[in-house]
């Protein structure tokens, strides 16, 4: 099947063409390949045999865009309209009745967004359906063929828009969802609403998750006590209880919080609200000098930095693509979440949600400052590009999609517990147990030797040698920090020399320092060895500097 993609340039015609081609190559049947071709003038529709024409319409220039539609229908009866940049239309306090537009024009119509990856499968399905139908002359404007002049076309298009394009002042014609969209995407109201929603999400994560978390912790403690009652004291019983059970159990206890958090994230993604958050940040991204689509990989970074870096491949400009990849590690991935929860729950019990939001906000703010600085260097300095900024329609989240999204994160979390966390717990226990073979003689262990060797660098941040060791174990996976804390401090960090200032300084260091090994490996593959090493160095330096400032100022106060 051959599809001609036409439309005015600013509507993102080329972006739509490339995105649909990639999707078609992934999903098309082997015996029915689809080939999308960008067409710049109507003469090309004559020169080649196309099965269907996709016209990409700019919602902010509707009359100009739709003036082309009768001419296309005059040349080719199989046509589909794709409405782009609809969010910019909403900014002007206008809305478009798309079902009525489809009825009046007589052409299948859809909304799609390349940047937000919305509507592409539906558009592809409509194209297949239209291509399979016989050619028809039933379009309401086909009768204009005999008197096809620009004035006639313009009059018809003007009449169609008079009936379908509505201003916000007409409350009867504006739908409730469109009024909600105006509020959520308003630069003055959207950000406070976003903050309130995130605060509620984190509040639920801590409050609702506290009960199953406590049950798991009590169950692990009961299992530990039971094993000590039946096992003879030996190195292997200590390994099993003090190493594996204590380390793995400490991370496992946060599983309910992970489930609750990603339940809400899934609801925001599936309902379309996450796209509104991306749209709010889009203006900021352009002021920074980045492509608007750069915020999508950053949002994905809250789940895991590795797929987020890979998602930046879709950014066409190589400089924007590389800079976006360098910004992703600033995002607080789910691996850091157990560390935050442990310290926030212990030292900031009265302000849990607020402290959590501050950590995420600090990461985003620093990534933007980082981008502003890098954009002024010779490696990334350039003019900003246009982007496609459509908003998907609001949808009711489907239970099946939500369950699949949660399971994907839970499975990844459990896989890390059974691999990286398990081995990290065993190694930490061994370094703590030997050479004295006495866990009470921790000062003379191999672990103490390593920690004391690193400690002078981290002492100005308020960290003792045990905290330094915890940071080292977080290199393969940040969750390992929690298991190390459980092994070294017996699961009670409140009596371990931490203060609220030290705890916040520690969390900031965990937020900023050296991403996990998998992230660095992915960054090396996608952006190159130089930028991977650059990330290692600047992340360590920034983490040390900011933690130093927080601890020193906090200690004075």
Number of strands: 7
Helical content band: 55-70%
Number of helices: 25
Q: pLDDT below 50 for ≥5 consecutive residues: which ranges?
A: 170-174
The main β sheet shows up as:
5 strands, parallel
Mean pLDDT: 83
Shape: elongated
> What topology, given as strand order, has the largest sheet?
2-1-3-4-6
Structural overview:
By secondary structure, the protein is mainly alpha-helical. The protein has two domains: 2-176, P-loop containing nucleotide triphosphate hydrolases (Rossmann fold, 3-Layer(aba) Sandwich), CATH 3.40.50.300; 190-381 and 399-556, no CATH class. It has 25 helices and seven strands. The protein has helices at residues 13-27, 43-47, 62-66, 68-75, 86-91, 98-105, 120-132, 150-164, 176-184, 190-230, 235-252, 255-271, 273-288, 295-300, 305-311, 318-327, 337-347, 352-375, 399-433, 446-458, 465-473, 480-489, 500-512, 517-527, 529-556, and strands at residues 2-7, 35-38, 52-58, 79-84, 94-96, 109-111, 165-167. The strands form two sheets. It has a five-stranded parallel sheet with strand order 2-1-3-4-6, sandwiched between helices. Strands 5-7 form a two-stranded antiparallel sheet. Strand 1, helix 1 (13-27) and strand 2 (35-38) form a beta-alpha-beta unit. Helix 6 (98-105) runs antiparallel to helix 8 (150-164), helix 11 (235-252) packs across helix 22 (480-489) and helix 24 packs across helix 25. The longest helix has 41 residues, at 190-230. The model is unreliable at 170-174 (pLDDT under 50).
